[in-house]
Design brief:
The protein is an alpha/beta fold. It is built from 16 helices and 13 strands. Helix 15 packs parallel to helix 16. The two termini are 26 Å apart.
């Protein structure tokens, strides 16, 4: 990890709110790990949720489980807001609010600005957009849909700096929630990359091992990918491994019932160590094939993992990046099953090209998306906000 700039070594940061962590939400804890290593003093007052908790699964759980989560998000953040205000009277520190930041920010919005510290919100992606458009949890158009959107807009306007993952998401957030353009920054996400960077590059071998790791949602273009697998069906040249679950799981279930050659599926979500092992056994990692709209606004965690692991990334040409980051060395067939299948078959016939793409991807990650990129972004955060 590169040493932190002087602006980081002299900085202090308070962490607050009910926050997510673990393999599904690695950004906040790894951001703090990078900052500590760079010399930032961290005052951690966050209420961290259990590592195995996945927000969207919890919201589809039993009524009792959902009530417990709602109470913790709403009233736990109310208590955290009070702690932030009281602590800021003693020591006014820049305060980082990890994802999902909007619940603490909403409570803080009711305090006068003079009582609030400078706030940095990890918005990552919109809660409202993910809940309503991606997963249909609130049944679009209902009062709960509109209420959540208003809550998120009010909350994000309180933050001095809103951190998102890509420039396209930045523009969308500004337009959708009426945020000030100079208050929203698109920065790299932070992952636990030590073990990934230690993985050896895949050898030239047959068959080519292609993995899909992620939630089975429309954003990822599951139907497109399954159709691409149907087009290949040459297990002597390519084998496919799907890892993950989600609302489009039925499409993978049908493919498995058909007995498609060269396809395996592990439905339970895997922890970080298991994902590293799966990437270590892969040659190629499949990205996002959901077409336009949100799929073109994101650069998912799984692509960070694949780049750091030195795996060839195959994803659609429509994607977005953090600010100031050049185009990565992805292979980019259109979100078309035939084109994806043809591209993978060409890779299977050219192991040197596959290895070159893997090596270029790892080098790109280290230069632009790893600790170096995250610390550069946070140096800008500390330079922009009022002195402590």
């Amino acid at each position: 990890m590169p040493p932190g700039p002087d602006a980081l070594r002299l900085a202090s940061l308070r962490v607050a709110g009910v926050a997510l962590r673990g393999s599904g939400y690695p950004n906040a804890t790894n951001t703090l790990r990078y900052l500590r290593a760079a010399g930032v003093r961290i005052v951690d007052q966050a209420d961290w949720l259990p590592e195995g908790l996945h927000l969207w699964k919890a919201l589809r759980a039993s009524p009792r489980a959902k009530i417990v989560l709602y109470v913790r998000l709403l009233f736990g953040n109310a208590f955290s807001a009070w702690r932030v205000v009281v602590a800021s009277r003693r020591e006014r520190l820049i305060t980082y609010v990890p994802y999902p930041a909007i619940f603490l920010l909403w409570w803080l919005s009711w305090f006068p600005k003079a009582l609030r510290p400078p706030l940095v919100a990890d918005a990552y992606i919109s809660i409202w957009d993910a809940a309503v458009r991606d997963r249909g949890l609130l049944g679009g158009g209902r009062w709960s849909d509109r209420l959540l959107r208003r809550l998120e807009a009010r909350a994000l306007r309180v933050a001095d700096i809103v951190l998102v993952d890509t420039t396209a998401n930045r523009e969308w957030m500004i337009a959708e929630f009426g945020l000030a353009p100079d208050a929203v920054s698109a920065v790299p996400l932070a992952i636990d990359d030590d073990a990934l960077l230690s993985l050896p590059l895949p050898p030239a071998r047959a068959p080519l091992r292609v993995s899909f790791i992620g939630t089975l949602v429309p954003l990822h273009g599951i139907e497109v990918l399954i159709d691409a697998v149907r087009h290949v069906q040459q297990p002597e040249r390519i084998i496919f491994r799907f890892i993950g679950d989600g609302q489009d799981a039925a499409k993978v279930e049908r493919a498995m019932a058909e007995g498609i050659a060269g396809l395996s599926w592990e439905r339970p979500w895997q922890d970080h160590e298991a994902i590293i092992a799966a990437l270590g056994e892969s040659d190629v990692s499949l990205g996002v094939f959901g077409g336009a709209a949100k799929a073109a606004r994101v650069l998912p965690f799984k692509l960070y993992l694949a780049l750091a692991a030195g795996r060839t990334v195959v994803t659609q040409p429509d994607f977005s990046l953090p600010e100031g980051v050049p185009t990565p060395p992805f292979l980019t067939p259109r979100a078309d099953p035939t084109e994806i299948a043809s591209g993978l078959l060409a890779l299977s016939a050219d192991p040197d090209a596959c290895r070159a793409a893997a090596l270029a991807g790892r080098s790109y990650y280290q230069q632009w998306l790893g600790a170096r990129g995250v610390l550069k972004a946070w140096q800008g955060v500390f330079e922009r906000l009022p002195a402590q």
